[in-house]
């Protein structure tokens, strides 16, 4: 999807994009062709200055029965349009720290062409394991069969707190897709399969490995679940170990799916960003 901002040794080239977009999981392990003259989405914008969307004021967190209330509330939320998504997703001015860059893609064009695609990078690099197959299919499964519309924000942060010994820029992707009334994607099952197939044994090849484990954010105002990724690469020139952290979580939101993914961001930073997004979900008023 977006150009890689992490320079990796040649040994990890097959999974470069997936690592960066966080597997996005993220936000797609596909990059637009560099010579393309057209934007990859129905609309694409670059914003130099932060722009803030006002959220609902005065909402208080639920009490001890909050989990049950959240489950009931989410069932009643119908498919959102792009304007509602823009108001609901984290805006640049709402990030815990200022972003150095921000891109927005709206409509289904970008998702269909660059995210809902079954890849082979993981299988090419690490073999035909169930874990590698799951990772190559995860974007396709998260987008689902019948999305109606969507919005995605891509943020480039000033620090690379999750990277060690590697030239990296921290990147965070936040997107939402809507589905026909009463339908959606059961994302928890997708993550559970990946965790089951990947947690027991990391993906390894020629000194490089990716450890994938279940990751949940139960402390947020809106529960999120997904996976964490620790990417370890051995520099072929000096043998130094290079480590990059990545996180991907989703939140079911009625007939909509929220996705957050990050690379070169540590757990503390990602949790802080996810908590800010969860607060906006909890304050949403239909």
From TrEMBL:
<feature type="signal peptide">
    <location>
        <begin position="1"/>
        <end position="19"/>
    </location>
</feature>
<feature type="compositionally biased region" description="Acidic residues">
    <location>
        <begin position="57"/>
        <end position="81"/>
    </location>
</feature>
<feature type="compositionally biased region" description="Low complexity">
    <location>
        <begin position="38"/>
        <end position="56"/>
    </location>
</feature>
<feature type="region of interest" description="Disordered">
    <location>
        <begin position="30"/>
        <end position="81"/>
    </location>
</feature>
<keyword id="KW-0732">Signal</keyword>
<protein>
    <recommendedName>
        <fullName>Sensor domain-containing protein</fullName>
    </recommendedName>
</protein>
